[in-house]
Every structure is written in C-alpha cells, then in structure tokens.
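Figure 6 in text form: structure in, sequence out.
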C-alpha cells in the first residue's frame, strides 16, 4: 500500500509594505512588531526605503518641501515592488495595529483595483510631526493604508517612470482609476487620531489600526497625544522582546564557542 502525500502548497505570506522614514525608525519597528504579534496568517513585511530605491534606480525624483515623509511618493511603487502579482498592503509607518491583519485580508474583493478607508478628513493644524507642513487636499489619507490588487490591469500604470513624474494630486487621489474601481475598508483599519472617535458601547468603532497621522509620541511635540500611552506600552514591550532576543543570540554564540 503506497503512502499518500499532501501536495497542497502552504499559503503564500500576505505581503505588507511599510513606508520607512529615517526620522521615524522606532515608529516603523513598533508598527512591524504590532502586526507580527497579532497576525494569525503568514505575513512578509517589507520596508519601502527611499535610499534603496534610489540605489536601484527605481526612484529619482527630487523631494519638494511639501513632502512630509520619505515615502510620500515611493508608496505608489507597491504594485511594482510586488511584481504586479496578487494583493499587497501598503501602510504608513505611523500605524499601531491592535487587530489581526487576517481580518483586513478577509475584506479583499478582486473586483477592485485597490481598497482603502475613504476618509473625509480636513486637518485643522498647519504643521504636523516635527514641524512638517500640513497640507489639505481631496481624498487626504486615502493613500496612507491601501490594499493593492497588484495584478489588476489598471495598476500596471504605476511604473517607476510614472511614480517619478506624475503629480501628487494624480497619485494621492488615485486618478488612474475610476471611482467604482476603489473599494471601501471600515474606518477602524485607519483610525485617525484626533479625527475618528470611539463611540461608547459600539464595538464597531474600536480601532483595529491606530494612525498617528499628525504625529506620534516618538516626536517630542506629540508625547501626550491621544492613544499615545498605548503606543508607548507597545514600544516598551517591543524593546523588551528585542533585548531578550539579543541575550539569546549572545548565549547561543557562547555555547558554540565552548
């Protein structure tokens, strides 16, 4: 009697691209940690680093004074970096995940070219983060967390040449798409600090991903922001885990040397 083997391939990891800024390294690390800690599906996290994209000749546009982060434009290279295949998530580094990204993955609908939280957000402050200019434009913050259908024919327009030459309005407003090609995601997956509110007794308003869009507690000016203590606790936990991992590596090296 011959043995049978399970030939089912394991599921491919859900690719998550996080916008990386050298001024916000700790924010990136905490965002990454919060995703990995709570995810019940395999994920692959890839930082979008402008320096690496420049070295690889994928990004060459000059930075202007209205770009508050190093990934203001590089975020739109997500489908290209995913080889125009499958679905991938892009998210700013100033997010803290409190929910399982499997729940976000489960809302994916192949009929859309991309999906996002369709905020109606008009900031009142004139500066954000560490003094960066706060800008106001239609569909603001839609591009801060995007589920990309990377294989969708319309997203093939997002080549390095287009991302390096098109206007901010064209890219951030998703002007390469028709309105009906943009799907909606519940706002709790891009919960804007200072804008969105938790309604007492309504669990559907509890944030799954907190977005410190104006600035998080890693910036001195935003140390006391709403939900700041939640981020600080996560950061302290991340640092303890990192230290334990470092001690384990040192211990393992010592054992090998004996």
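Output sequence:
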């Amino acid at each position: 009697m011959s043995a049978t083997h399970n030939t089912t391939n394991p599921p491919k990891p859900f690719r998550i691209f996080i916008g990386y800024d050298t001024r916000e390294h700790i924010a990136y690390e905490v965002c990454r940690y919060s995703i990995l800690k709570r995810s019940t599906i395999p994920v692959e996290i890839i930082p979008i680093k402008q320096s690496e994209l420049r070295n690889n000749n994928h990004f060459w546009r000059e930075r202007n004074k209205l770009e508050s982060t190093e990934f203001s434009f590089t975020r739109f290279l997500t489908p290209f970096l995913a080889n125009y295949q499958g679905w991938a998530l892009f998210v700013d580094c100033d997010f803290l995940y409190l929910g399982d990204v499997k729940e976000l993955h489960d809302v994916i609908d192949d009929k859309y070219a991309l999906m996002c939280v369709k905020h109606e957000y008009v900031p009142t402050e004139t500066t954000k983060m560490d003094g960066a200019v706060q800008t106001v434009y239609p569909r603001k913050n839609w591009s801060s967390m995007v589920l990309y259908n990377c294989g969708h024919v319309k997203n093939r327009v997002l080549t390095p040449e287009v991302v390096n030459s098109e206007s901010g309005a064209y890219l951030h407003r998703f002007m390469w798409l028709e309105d009906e090609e943009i799907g909606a995601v519940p706002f709790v997956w891009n919960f804007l600090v200072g804008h969105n509110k938790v309604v007492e007794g309504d669990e559907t308003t509890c944030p799954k991903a907190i977005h410190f869009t104006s600035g998080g507690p890693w910036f001195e000016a935003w140390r006391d922001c709403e939900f700041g203590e939640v981020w600080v606790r996560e950061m302290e936990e991340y640092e303890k885990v990192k230290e334990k991992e470092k001690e384990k590596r040192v211990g393992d090296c010592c054992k090998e040397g004996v």
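Caption detail: The CA atoms of residues 39 and 101 lie 6 Å apart.
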